[in-house]
Amino acid sequence: MKSISRFLKFVILFLIVQKGYSQDSDFHIYLSLGQSNMEGYAKIEPQDKVNVNPRFQVLAAVDCPEMGREMGKWYTAVPPLCRCTTGLTPIDYFGRTMISNLPEKIKVGVINVAVGGCKIELFDKDNFETYVAGSPDWLKNIVKEYDGNPYARLVAMAKIAQQKGVIKGILLHQGESNTGDTLWPQKVKIVYDNLIKDLNLDPKKVPLLSGETVNEDQNGKCGSMNAIIAKLPQVIPNSYVISSKGCKAEPDFLHFNADGYRELGRRYAEKMLSLSGYALSNGKESFIVQAPLGFDVADPNAKQGKIETVTYESKTVGSVRKATIYTPPGFNKKKKYPVLYLLHGIGGDEKEWLNGGNPQVILDNLYAAGKIEPMIVVMPNGRAMKDDSATGNIMDPEKVKAFSVFEQDLLKDLIPFIEKKYPVLKDREHRAIAGLSMGGGQSLNFGLGNLDKFAWVGAFSAAPNTKLPQELLPNPEEAKKKLKLLWISCGDKDWLIENSSRTHDYLFKNNVPHIYYIEPGVHDFKVWKNGLYMFSQFLFKPVDQSKFAAYTILGNPAQTNIRKAEYPQILPDNRVIFKIKAPEASRLQIDLGKKYDMVRDSEGFWTVTTNVINPGFNYYSLLIDGVAVADPASQSFYGMGRMASGIEIPNKEGDFYTLKNVLHGEVRIKQYFSKVTNSWREMYVYTPPGYENASEKYPVLYLLHGGGEDQTGWASQGKANLILDNLIAENKAKPMLIVMLDGNVAGSAGFNENALKAFENELKTEAIPFVESNFKAAKDPKNRALAGLSMGGLQTLYAGIKNSDMFSSIGVFSSGWWANNTALSEPQYEFMKNNAATINSNIRELWISMGGKEDIAYENCKIMMKKFDEMGVKYKYSEYPGGHTWPVWRHDLFQFAPLLFN
């Protein structure tokens, strides 16, 4: 009688399903199946039952009267999610992670049908009965809760779910009971294929995610099965293996504990979010950053546009030429449309996009989803010559030249033809141009060169035909006013990425709004199709330029990375992605002044994306289980009293320290024996261009580092040599020697009288005599200057002021006598007060600078300058925002050096 009742219930449910219904495309459904780890073995803890977002729903697959749940109905996904008395599963935190990283309008629903201890054969709809017949009674009893057929129950529930939402994926965790079964992937394929067929799903759009068993790194008893699970993608192309590395296990080493389930569930979600095209939002607004699975697969339910080939007379070429035209679904000749001109690569023609990119399918799907404006797409032959076929030697100079000639063909022949034949809007705001490879270079050249014709410009993997940035945009201000969108995208492994990178660098420096989109990939249609998918969604509607920097998947490796290191990567808005492999670590952080917790993925990689980082040079440390170390992927610098990592962040105002095509000086490393310290010491000496063959003597700037640093600081972190090279090349500074000394004398920090006195002695009796004996150095006071930052600023104040007869200029960067150390500062002020006239007479430039109010020396400096005012000591003050950092001190040198020796 009970079986008859359940049968009638199924009949009613199926009848409901057969009625008409309207799916909500924003309700994403996921089917989950497997054995005990998917069923839920771990105890549900209090944290697992609270704060479950109502947007995360579960469709009850069995009746649970004690929970108030009825089979076939939706409920907020408070565990248990499988059956009435099961435990926590990976699906709990799969759903929570999905919801926390998807737009508010999207809901997530799950259906969990799992049976502890079962083999995958249980879900083979044609052979399950034989398997169940030979199973133990405890398994038969669980199967009875699904009316003897778990597969049929899953399908029945899925069909109910399809009334409300769209099935987006299938999640599997099974394999323990099939350990050693090399046919397991093929058996899973049978189940997957049946689900796809019975639910009328598209396998290209519905991936299968399969989790590993408890990993061998957790002593998993079935860990050997993971080698078989790893072969699943070879059998099911749209399947993905979710690693269980590091996911903690129960003492039986067969099941994950609650923490393990939470972590494994997050990994399922991270993969699904990536496949869906979403960026992890980290609590901020979520958005699509890449094309989701199936974006280029025809949807039988979507209305289709029309493809046709047209011919037009080209006076430029002197022949009749072809173009492929796409008109959108519902094309109406009485309506006027904007136009996108979509260009091919060097080996293609007017059919290349159709043959390799399915643009009509991509656009049809986007129209169906309401994500793009109706537009006409023109795909011409960009090789403007009489024989414009993509045959023979495509690199022949005449054929290559024809791509440039196409600019005139486009402007004078093709556009007028399109505007005569089709109902199109003829203003620049409704005309876009984009292309791949050679066509990407054409798009940049023609679009940016004709801003009166195009307001929307896109380049996918632009080729070397791309003009130099200064030629592309000689007037950046005009581009800012006229461009609606400038899109530049490329694969991170594309050998032509330099063309995109240099254009981006110029645009960044000149504050021209644009999207610089880097994604995993090479020079192929995978990248170009994604470029079209993303670019087209911006066209012909209002755009928010403030969000442009968010549209990328990857960043550029920092210039401070060691050779071939891909991370850290710098995003267009100067956030930084760190990614480090440390499978044995329990906690990783990045310390950039602020500490960032890193998150471990399934492969033992730890990642984090920082906030926006200050431009220029920044120290950072990798904290492994609380121990600060240098990042092995980044260059190391002596700073903070130890070797630390450093990262160079792009700086729009940093042109003065970039490596340019000018004459360059040299940085020489010299050892000398100091009688003051009774030891060998080292100095770095910059000699200007032409020094080797010069007969004249050069003025000398003695330049001092800060606390926790050494003589390498100004050469490495400070880029002093490049700053002077550029200033000298522009005749803004006199050629000079820069002597970069080690201010750490006798192991003492430079913050007390003894240490300052020791440095003074070292400078006067050892360093200066050595320089003047071993270099072409002028020996009179008017040709000597002394400057330093932070601790070096105190050393400069002490040695420079007390020996004003030895120096003509003094520079104090981010420093000042400490207001709370009167025992040190008062004697200095007393000396200056008594010798103010002499100081003012000897020191032509007493130049003080500060990194703004955020500089830790700011208040001390203000007090010190007030003292100077009171005693009549003359000085000049400069302020540059950035705090107590190398970007500030680089700028200090840039401003100070031109003042010297005039």
Describe the protein in words.
It is a single chain. With 902 residues, the chain is an alpha/beta fold. Helix content is 32%, strand content 21%. Strands 8-9-11-10-12-13-14-15 form an eight-stranded mixed sheet, with helices on both faces. A hairpin with a 4-residue loop joins strand 27 (666-674) and strand 28. The protein starts with a helix and ends in a 6-residue tail after the last helix.
Q: Judging from the principal axes of the Cα atoms, what is the shape?
A: globular
Main sheet strand line-up: 8-9-11-10-12-13-14-15
The rounded distance between the terminal residues' Cα atoms is 107 Å
Structural Rg: 35 Å
Please state the average pLDDT score: 94
Index terms:
902 residues; alpha/beta; eight-stranded mixed sheet; 27 helices; globular; disordered N terminus; SGNH_hydro_sf; acyltransferase activity, transferring groups other than amino-acyl groups; Sialate O-acetylesterase domain-containing protein
